[in-house]
């Protein structure tokens, strides 16, 4: 199943309203939004959960606090949670204010995040 195009449009719209320059990258059936060449957030269809999840790169400083919020899960692709990254279930970003909250957390961490090493061609 492909990522949720409506959610992608909502993220694009909010980033544009916040005057954020971003790039998009299709990844493993999902979509990743990048700011300053660093992952900001993304959309992932989770087969175990059965729905699209918002991937949020919030950083380790707020990771534990974020996981205490309703509708948040550890981001776990490999059987081991990735610190600093969370999944938010649809109920957690259904309202525009909720989506904005998660994007603001991601944007606050982005300047502190390390960029991925460029791939060799």
Condensed summary:
The protein has helices at 5-17, 60-67, 96-109, and strands spanning 23-27, 30-35, 38-46, 51-57, 72-74, 85-88.
Descriptive report:
This is TfoX/Sxy family protein. Pfam families: TfoX_N (PF04993). This protein has helices spanning 5-17, 60-67, 96-109; strands at residues 23-27, 30-35, 38-46, 51-57, 72-74, 85-88. With 121 residues, it is of the alpha+beta class. A hairpin with a 4-residue loop joins strand 3 and strand 4 (51-57). It is globular and about 30 Å long.
Query: Approximately how much beta-strand content do the residues carry?
Result: 25-35%
Structural class: alpha+beta
Major sheet description: 6 strands, antiparallel
- Helix and strand string, N-terminal first? HEEEEHEEH
* Proportion of residues in helical segments: 25-40%
Shape: globular
* Strand order, sheet with most strands: 1-2-3-4-6-5
What is the number of E strands?
6
Gyration radius, in Å? 13 Å
Mean pLDDT: 90
* Unreliable stretches: none
Q: Compute the number of helices.
A: 3
The oligomerization state is single chain
End-to-end C-alpha gap: 29 Å
InterPro entries: TfoX_N (IPR007076)
Protein name: TfoX/Sxy family protein
Domain TfoX N-terminal: 26-108
Pfam family, one: TfoX_N
